[in-house]
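Notes from hallway chat w/ T.B., transcribed later so I don't forget. T.B. wanted the structure written out for a chain they're using in a teaching module, and asked if we could keep both sequence and structure tokens in one place. Agreed to drop them here.
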Amino acid sequence: MVVALSLAFTPFSSIAAADVLPSWKDGTAKQAIVQFVKQVTTKGGPKFVPTAERIAVFDNDGTLWAEQPMYFQLAFALDRVKALAPQHPEW
């Protein structure tokens, strides 16, 4: 199974020399991901994957969480309750 991380910039070759992952440290992990995306998005390359066949997989291992370990849906619900509470004293 081929899993391609498209990172929302297709094709990669059209990206200028700007840092594509500015919040990441420049290390082997960042270099490997950038190289992988470049390989699978370069038309005519041996590892090219057509856009329609690309699959992005996201794992909720905490890297997408906010500063507090709380799901965004819960944070949204709590904010909505707080905003609507003055209109509903029975709550």
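Follow-up for T.B.: The longest helix spans residues 28-41. Might be a good example for the class.
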